[in-house]
Write a structure and sequence with these properties.
The chain contains 16 helices and five strands. It is α+β, with helices and mostly antiparallel strands and 405 residues long. It folds into three domains: 119 residues; 126 residues, 2-Layer Sandwich (Alpha-Beta Plaits), CATH 3.30.70.270; 88 residues, Arc Repressor Mutant, subunit A (Orthogonal Bundle), CATH 1.10.10. A five-stranded mixed β-sheet has the order 2-3-1-4-5, with helices on both faces. Strand 2 and strand 3 form a beta hairpin. Helix 13 crosses helix 16. The N terminus is likely disordered.
Length: 405
Amino acid sequence: MTAGSGPDAGLPIGSMDGDEWLAQVAESAAEATGTPVELLGGFLPMLAEAAVHGRSPQPGDLDAVRDLGRRAAEQGVSAGPTVALYLSAAWRLWRELPMVVRTRDRDRVRAAAEAVLHVLDDAVAVLVESHQSARRDLIRREEALRRAFVDDLLRGDADVAGLVERAEPFGLDLANPHHVALVEQTGSPGTIDRAATFLERSMVDRFGDRGVLVATKDTHLVVLVPGGSTVAASALGVGRAIREELGRLRDGGRWRVATGRAFPGAYGVARSYEEAREALALADRLDLDADVVDGRDLLVFRMLGRDQAAIVDLVREILGPLRQLRGGPDVLIDTLHAYFASGGVATETARRLHVSVRTVTYRLARVSTLTGYDPFRPDQRFALHASVLGARLLDWPRTPLPAGG
C-alpha cells in the first residue's frame, strides 16, 4: 500500500504496517528523552486515531495514561522527562503522517491538528496529575518508614539485625561510630520541617552522602553524622557545623544544638542520642547561654544529677539557710549563678543582672553571712558552686526538695 493513498489509509510509511511505524516513533522518542519506551503505553495509537479519524480519547484510554504516570513515579522517572517523552512522541508522530502533511486540504489539516492537540492536552494533564499524586504517596510512605526507623534506632531496638538491614537504604553503616545531635528551636516555631530539608542537603555537602541522616522527632531535629572524619573529629565540631548551617536560614529564630559522643554499633547511636538529649535538658535546666553544647562537657553534671540523695543533701545543707530571707532565696541564688558563670568577676555579674557592682558585692556578702560559705574564698567557692548547680538541676526553690534526702 502506498502511503497517503486515501483519507483513511493509516499506513504512513511505505510498506511498514501500523504497529511497526508507531513502534519506530516510540523508540525514537524514548531514546531522545532517555526514558523507558514502555511509559508511552497505548498513547501513540490513540494519537494516530485522533489524527486520522478524529477520534476523541475515551475514559479507558485516559485511565491507561493515568496508570502510566503512576508507574513513571514508582520507577523514579520525574515528571519533566515523562512529559518530554509524550511531547517528543507527539511531534514525531505528526511528522510521520504523510496523509496529513502532504494534503492541500487546509480544513483537514486543521481538524487533524486540533484532534491531536486535544488528545495530547488530555493525556498530559492526567499523566502529570497521576505522577504528582503517586509521588506524594511515595514521599509519605518514605517519610513514615524514615520516622519508624529513626524511632527504633534512637530507642535502641533489640532487633539489631533488622536495624542494620533497614539502615542500608539510608546509606548508614551501623558498624561505624556515629554522632547524634539534637537540635532545639527557641524561636519562630513552625520551621522545623523546612530546616530538616535544608540541613540534610548541607550536611551531605559537608560530610558526604554516606552515614548522614536528618529527621524530625517531636519538636526537635535529630542529626546523625559519621564519626572519625576530619570535620566530625569531635561532637563539638559537629555541633558547630550544624549551628553554622542553621544560621543561614532566614527567619529561623535561635537554635541550640546538643551533641553526643560517637559510639560504634546500633546501640552506639542510641547511646549518643541519650547523651545529646540529657545535655540539652541540662543546658536548659542550668540556663546555659551557649548555642552548642557538647555532651562530654556535661558529664560531671549528669553524674551529679544521678546521685539525687547526695545533691539534695548538698543543697539543703549549704543553701537551705537562704530560705529565711523575706523574699525567698531566688535572688541570691541567681546572683551566685551569674557570678560563677562570669568567672567570678563582679563587674560582669552586675552587667548580666542589670544591677550595680555594689549590689552584687552586697548580695554575695549576704550569702556568706547566711550560709557560712564565702564565694570569694577558693576553698569554699566550689561547694557553693556545686550546690547552686544542684539547685538548678532540682529546680529548687520553685520545686520543694524531696523528703529524706
